[in-house]
Amino acid sequence: MLITHEGLSPTVHPTAYVAPTATLCGDVRVGPGCRVLFGAVLTAEGGPVEVGEGSIVMENAVLRGTRRDPLALGRKVLVGPTSYLTGCQVENEVFLATGSRVFNGARIGTRSEVRINGIVHLRTVLPADSMVPIGWVAVGDPVRILPPDDHAAIWSVQKDLDFPGYVFGLDRPADGESLMPALSERFGRALGRHGNDQEI
């Protein structure tokens, strides 16, 4: 399904294949020889999504470009089933295994691997030829690659990356206060821009 969003429509190179149950919304550009499989969602939420030549987006993956951070895949990238990428830059020949997560402002270097359920956190830079093991977390710049049960070490880097401020423009609330009322109001308002989308 191709959908126009905020006056911009997806473009798909004639040699690419987009499955009939995939959804491309807004300024999404699918390059030569690409494959976008069943249930995948590529949505430009104020910033473009670009899929480079020969790249593959597997079933039920989500790729989201943001106003602050467009999403770009280089050439010959594989995005595994159920992976979630938002506002990140992925260089050439990268393997993102099933269930991988790559967050806003992250950059993944050429020939890197993020293995099953691996995470590349907000504003993290993963150099070329890096590997994130199954279920591990890459965080920071310079990057630290940590096991998921080492929450203290992950948080010691992650806290200063300021997820609510960077992604939503919100201050982290004082202890005991919830971020969710302000976050859901702001994010909900932004997502409401889809109210005028039209299927092509």
UniProtKB/TrEMBL annotation:
InterPro entries linked: Transf_Hexapept/Carb_Anhydrase, Trimer_LpxA-like_sf
Superkingdom of source: Bacteria
Residue ranges crossing the lipid bilayer per the database entry: none
Record-given protein name: Gamma carbonic anhydrase family protein
